[in-house]
Design brief:
This protein is an alpha/beta fold. It is built from 11 helices and 10 strands. The protein has helices spanning 6-37, 123-140, 153-164, 181-199, 202-211, 219-231, 242-250, 257-279, 307-313, 335-338, 340-357; strands at residues 46-54, 57-65, 72-76, 99-104, 146-151, 171-175, 288-290, 294-299, 317-319, 323-328. An 8-stranded mixed β-sheet has the order 1-2-4-3-5-6-8-10, sandwiched between helices. It has a two-stranded parallel sheet with strand order 7-9. Helix 5 packs antiparallel against helix 6. The radius of gyration is 22 Å and the shape is globular.
Length: 364
């Protein structure tokens, strides 16, 4: 006969429930602290998170800034599908000099939905969505100065907009700029192979042989290669790791628990829809003419979108109003997360001042 009473089961169950709730209690506490620390004064600033319609589809944006008269800073995140909205608190100081806008692109994060037509997941549609967003923001915020920041996949959209619609922008900033993806993938693959051979890493060499040389059979092969790039410091170098990045996103007041549950779904969906088209991106097949100030922020150790490709083609970028490469020596593919203080300083001082004065230094 079982002598245990209902009360004897209650204590372990209560303890288990308490332990399971601790991460969420911690998240709520940290999010509240961040919200209080980064409070926007409603008398002078703006703090909005909402759905708007772009390209016939509802998509989420966040608008934050301490002064409505400041220029707009619009982030185009990478991935595809890797939202930067949860990381807004990391760069809260940007909100003192800019009205900062984060946008979860169609199929990503808050904007993910079961009802998205995969046929609309094309680079041209994303560019059209971004252009519509810029035009909407300029009217809504009564602001002509728009600084566009594109990271990785977002840099494909950003450079395309800077080339096609320079009248919409005050300056363009490419972070981990994509120029010629087939060449980038080849260099990335060879980086992993060389690092594995140097270390005698037979398991990695076997994985490379299994997925084959780019172009990969499918996006899953690309994901495996990216994991190996990260293993050898070509995605995140030394000041950050995957746990710290996940922690920053987890405690963010910009994303709810439900939003986080959509995050990986958005990455998977977006990658499946877009990877074949992304792989074919090659800006060098035509003249790269940009009639706005252009800045490239590059991690010295980036082998996800290798910086050497940009350096090779930098002399052929015709930027009539100036161009500049700004190096982050302790970063790989995520300089804005690996060296966040420097990232904020560069955007608030060097880029803001140079684009106002039009006294840019061109470097090769």
């Amino acid at each position: 006969m079982n002598s245990k009473t209902p009360a004897s089961f209650a204590k372990p169950l209560m303890l288990s429930a308490l332990l399971m709730s601790l991460p969420w209690v911690y998240r709520r506490m940290m999010a509240s602290r961040l919200r209080a620390r980064n409070r926007i004064n409603p008398a002078t600033g703006i703090e909005v998170q909402e759905k708007i319609t772009l390209g016939g589809m509802e998509q989420w944006i966040s608008i934050r800034g301490q002064n409505r008269n400041n220029p707009i800073l619009l982030f185009l995140h990478g991935g595809p599908g890797v939202s930067l909205m949860p990381f807004q608190p990391v760069w809260a100081d940007l909100e003192k000099r800019y009205t900062v806008v984060h946008w979860d692109q169609r199929g990503c994060g808050k904007s993910w939905s079961l009802n998205i037509d995969p046929q609309t997941m094309t680079i041209d549609q994303f560019i059209a969505d971004a252009v519509e967003l810029i035009e909407t923001l300029k009217v809504r915020l009564n602001q002509e100065r728009v600084y566009l920041v594109g990271h990785s996949f977002g840099s494909i959209l950003g450079l395309s907009i800077a080339m096609r619609h320079p009248q919409l922008l005050h300056a363009y900033v490419g972070v981990g700029q994509a120029i010629k993806l087939p060449e980038s993938e080849h260099i990335s693959y060879e980086f992993v192979r060389a690092q594995a051979e140097k270390r005698g890493d037979l398991k990695t060499l076997a994985t490379l042989q299994d997925i084959g040389h780019p172009p990969y059979k499918n996006y899953k092969g690309m994901l495996k290669e990216r994991q190996l790039v990260n293993k050898f410091g070509g995605q995140i170098y030394c000041n950050m790791d995957n746990f710290k990045i996940a922690h920053q996103a987890f405690i963010s007041p910009e994303y709810s628990v439900w939003d986080h549950s959509l995050f990986m779904k958005g990455i998977d969906f977006s990658s499946k829809c877009l990877w074949d088209e992304i792989y074919r991106v090659d800006f060098t097949t035509r003249s790269i003419d940009v009639n706005v100030p252009v800045f490239f922020i590059e991690g010295r150790h980036d082998y996800t979108v290798p910086s050497e490709v940009l350096v090779d083609y930098f002399p052929f970028i015709n930027a009539t109003r100036g161009k500049d490469i700004i190096w982050f020596d302790e970063s790989a593919h995520f300089p804005m997360l690996e060296e966040p203080d420097k990232f904020v300083e560069v955007l608030c001082q060097r880029i803001l001042q140079s684009s106002y004065d039009q006294t840019m230094v061109t470097v090769g």
